[in-house]
Write a structure and sequence with these properties.
The chain is of the alpha+beta class. It is built from four helices and 13 strands. The model has no long low-confidence stretch (mean pLDDT about 95).
Length: about 210
């Protein structure tokens, strides 16, 4: 299921159906063996005709220039909770994999908002080494897909449970909450006003127990 790794299978199914209803021929479980002059050849032998082909295969942190530097590299530049990779060396943005103390896990966030916030946090910690502060944000992203506006706060990947807490999935107007362990770790809203999800962001910040959501 597309997006299942990011938002959960249930939500991924809803978003995928919206694409199909807008004429997208969504293929899963197949691979591309070749791009030809007339389209894309699939591994099963079928040719999907196309005038233009867009290749989107994910991203890779650009860390090759750090080879031999002595810095730890593992899916990005490994940093601590202060965004420090080594004394007087800090990382920020897509390339930084840092320990977020709010969720107790390392993460690497590929969103513009996080890059801006982490850049400021890293600069502050570098400038004031005796008064460093952990970088513990609630990650945020938004997306417009057709007539759906999607907002999400928190750490949604790898959650243990997803529950619709407001609205209706079939109408594509809902808020879903995400659980990891015994606490609320994220929320995602589709087709809802911004105020519908704001209180969930605060609940993530305060580490609200799942049973109290």
């Amino acid at each position: 299921m597309p997006l299942a790794h990011a938002v959960g299978e249930q939500i991924g199914r809803v978003l995928s159906q919206a694409h199909r209803e807008h004429g997208v021929d969504l293929r899963t479980g197949v691979a591309v063996s070749a791009v030809t002059d007339t389209g894309v050849l699939l591994t099963g032998g079928e040719l999907v005709e196309a005038d233009e082909v867009l290749v989107a295969i994910g991203s890779q942190p650009n860390t090759e220039w750090l080879d031999g530097s002595g810095l730890e590299i593992a899916d990005g530049l490994v940093c601590d909770q202060y965004s420090a990779a080594a004394p007087d060396v800090y990382g920020a943005g897509d390339v930084a994999r840092w320990h977020n103390p709010l969720f107790g896990v390392p993460m690497r966030v590929e969103h513009r908002t996080n890059a801006a916030e982490q850049g400021m946090a890293a600069a502050r910690n570098l400038r004031y080494p005796d008064a460093r502060k952990p970088f513990a944000p609630v990650p945020y992203f938004w997306s417009d897909q057709y007539d759906m506006k999607i907002h999400a706060y928190g750490h949604l990947r790898g959650s243990n449970e997803v529950a619709v807490v407001d609205g209706d999935l079939e109408q594509r107007r809902f808020v879903a909450a995400y659980r990891s362990g015994d606490r609320l770790v994220g929320a995602l809203a589709v087709g809802m006003p911004p105020k519908a999800i704001r209180r969930w962001r605060q609940a993530v910040v305060t580490g609200t127990a799942w049973k109290d959501k």
